[in-house]
Amino acid sequence: MSLFAETSGDFGLGGQSAHCSLLWALESLAWSSALLSRVAVVLGRLADQDPGGRLANRPSASLAAALHLHVPQGAGDGATCVAALDAVRRVAPAAAWRLALDLVSHANPGMISGPKFRDWPRPAQATMSDTGDALDALTLRIADDAGSDPDRLAAAFALVHRFRETGRLALLKAAEAAWPDLQEECRRTVLASLAERVAMHRRHPDAGWALPGQALKALEAFLDAHALPGSHPDDAELFSWRPFRRGLNRNGEDADLEALASARAEAVRRRLRDGLPAVLRLAEASKLPAAVGDALAAVTAAHDSMVLEHLTGSSQPLHAMAAGLAAHRQREDASWLAGTVVARPAQAAALCRTAAIDEALLTLVDGLEADTQDEFWRDMQPLGVSDDLTPTVVRRLLERGRAWTAIELLSDVGACADRDLAIQALMAPALAATEDISRAQSPEYTIGRLLDNLEEAGADDNLLADLEWFYQPLLDHSRRPIALHRELARNPARFVNLVSLLYPPDLHTGAASGDGEPADGETTDHTASSRASTAAWAVLREWRRPLPGSVDGHLPTTEDMLRWVESVREKLTASGRAHVLPRVLGSALSGALTDDDGTWPSEPVRDVLEILRDTDLDRHLAVAKMNQRGVTGRGVYDGGAQERALADQYTATADRVRGRWPRSGALLDGLSRSYREDARREDRSAESEGDR
Fold first, then answer.
1. pLDDT digits (tens, 9 = 90+) for 159-186
2. What is the DSSP letter of 246?
3. What is the distance between the alpha carbons of residues 139 and 267, in angstroms, rounded to a whole number?
4. 3 state SS of 455
5. How is residue 15 annotated by DSSP?
6. CA angle 532, 538, 542 (to 5 degrees)
7. How confident is the model at residue 329 (pLDDT cuts 50, 70, 90)?
8. What pLDDT score does 521 carry?
9. Which of 25-34, 188-197, 228-237, 373-382 has the lowest mean pLDDT?
10. How far is C-alpha 681 from the chain's CA centre?
11. b/e per residue, 112-142, with b = 16+ CB within 10 A?
């Protein structure tokens, strides 16, 4: 549906979709008891048609938030929410099933706001008994709707710890009734889900959320009664990050490694009695399928050839199982990989990706056919690469268009041992098509760290400024563009370029092109223009130091600052933007740098204000300074003490400078008066709070 179509900004950040406004409107209507069920039905139908996307605003989330039992945010109490669920079950059963699971699991509490122009009554606060009754009603519906669907039964058993006794017994009864109709593979799915829940609660018996022993015994009795021949119901649990099995772990401790290896090998042997397909099913049901491959390799080599076929063209669990088997063989025999690559050339790249990255592996890969090398580097994950091999691996990745992976790897080195290579990697996304940024784990962190390393290594400031501008949409909230700010201070043309992105020319000045066409360098792509103006605004907003005219990052001379200001005035006037000069210059000159004695504004700024004698500039500079203060916090009865302290500070500074710089004295007097008025307002607010 076009309603759910999403648009995103640079680097895939942000996102907009028309459906969000519709969801917010429906959420507001959910506060009406007369409309709640109708809203639930509409949201359920939308949820059934929702194709999914990157945005968190989804119809299913709004539906769960409106009917949430533990964080009620709509008009319904427990009984009303269950009735609304029943209404959804009739028209959108798939959405109702997901909703019931969400309500039982306490998922999607959301934060939905009520209506602004309707005084709809709120339902009474639900008691624990009311919530429990509603939970029982939900679990009975879950047991009923699960039917003989193995995926639904497995999903319900995954939440069995959220059920009260009534719900647990109903679910076990539903599973018993469905059991004769389930195929063997479906039974394995259901048993694996229940076994995982039981193991989790046996592992943490003292946790507040753990099921009591009597409840676990009933679930374990079901597992034992329906155990399939040749397998143990919790075999899959052995192949997890924190394996647990009755009798293997004691007192909730992690399993002994030797005992765990033995138990895993025995589980594989049991499955092998039914043939290799049974082992493959175990891998697909396990959270750590590579451990299944490792255990199979320890038990027998008879199935190596068939298992290795799954390195290519198979599901992720079977691929991981094959990789685990290959890794085991490499630990046993250092020459196994080279020999197997020769014997299985069609899988050479996949085989090499199972090995640790060292000099021997890189030499082996370099000796493969060109297409095979490309295949290897296209999908390999550079984990555990040593610092001395990092440059080689990065170059190979860049040659295959994997700039984001290369950047992430370089950022892990911790310093720019190869500065030129780091610059090449950072420039790659700007110069050519590359892999999707989603391949990078934390692009904001890795790019920011790499830029910091280049700064420390003394990279060219102009180049760093260009890189910071390119990556600004990605780094807006994580790193200040310090090199770009230095470039703005010494290069008025760069400042004018950013201002031109932010403010259009005044067409009535006659400075713009007379034929109605955009001036040179100005874009007609409105989307690109919007993104560029947003980036320009963010860069200028954060610019506090160094001051305009600075060439070395320190306090500039009056002459240097005046030259910078005059150049900006000339260029912006020529481009038809003279109307924004007081605003942008006032913001630029309001930076935080002070004289050695702490006086603000600094002497070069005071000199420039006296020379220019521009009242509008003085006013905008004062406004920019006040805006820099940001949000404040205070006690309820503190009043305007903070503002009075600032007013006293500005008054003292004004007295100190007004003799030589009268315009700066007047500017500071204005700031002092403004803060004294703010202080009186805060005093009145504190007094009114005290009268309540």
1. 998 899 999 999 999 999 999 999 988 8
2. B
3. 34
4. helix
5. -
6. 150
7. very high
8. 46
9. 228-237
10. 41
11. bebeeeeeeeebeebeeeebebbbbbbbbbb
57 has a pLDDT exceeding 80: yes
The amino acid at residue 197 is R
pTM score: 0.73
- The CA distance from 383 to 379, in Å, is 12
Residue spans of the domains in the chain: they are 229-332
Can you say how many angstroms the Cα of residue 327 is from the centroid of all Cα atoms in its chain?
Answer: 32
The phi, psi pair for 624, rounded to 5°, reads -60, -40
d(Cα 558, Cα 223) in Å, to the nearest integer?
84
Angle at 50 between CA 48 and CA 56, to 5 degrees: 125
What is the total residue count of the chain? 692
Q: Is 186 helix (H, G, I), strand (E, B) or coil?
A: helix
Q: Which amino acid is at 68?
A: H
Give residue 104's Cα distance to chain centre: 26
Predicted pLDDT of residue 111: 65
Cα(5)–Cα(621) distance, rounded to whole angstroms?
43
Placement of tokens 């899988």 in the chain: 347
Tokens 């910091």, residue located = 452
Ramachandran angles phi, psi of 595, nearest 5°? -70, 175
CA–CA gap between residue 92 and residue 41 (Å, rounded): 8
From CA 252, how far away is CA 613, in angstroms rounded? 78
Q: Does the N-terminal peptide bond of residue 601 adopt cis geometry, omega within 30 degrees of 0?
A: yes
Q: Which residues contact 677 (CB under 8 A, 6 or more apart)?
A: none
